[in-house]
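Fold this sequence, please.
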Amino acid sequence: MNQKRPALFPPPEDASIRQRLARYLLRAHGAGLVLLASGNAVVSFRATQMPIAGPFRFLFENPAAEIGLLQAYLLMAAIGAVLFCGSFAVRIGRFDALGIAAHLVPLLALLAFRPLVISFMGPGTLLMSATIHLTFIAIEVVALLLQGRMAWSGRIQAGVVAS
């Protein structure tokens, strides 16, 4: 009668500290993404209702732009939840790849529409957004390297620099 109930997210049995660190990076990325994207969704939506200062100030006069922003932020929050839950999977490499892909899309949009982003939101917002996306991409690349999931990572770990 004193049976343990299975945990919602059982801790996987990782063989190395590197794999545990990769798991922690994915979990932190997922949680951070949920918080950041949800916060941006709330603030950007509020900017359509009343004039505010900051990068979303243009939304009060152009609320139609919020349609795409709200979708993008909520989708990124959902992806963050998937990354967090995926950090408890046996194999997490595919979730790291999803994290990279999820940040490549807005990063490419920022670069493609750089003049528009600067004129509507300012150069500081462009720099901050690009830095956030590049940071999360770097975190996931490190997580993949820790797992030895990249084709060339084994050669680096073995000490072979040139191939």
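The mean pLDDT is 85. The helical segments are 17-49, 65-86, 93-112, 114-121, 123-147, 153-157.
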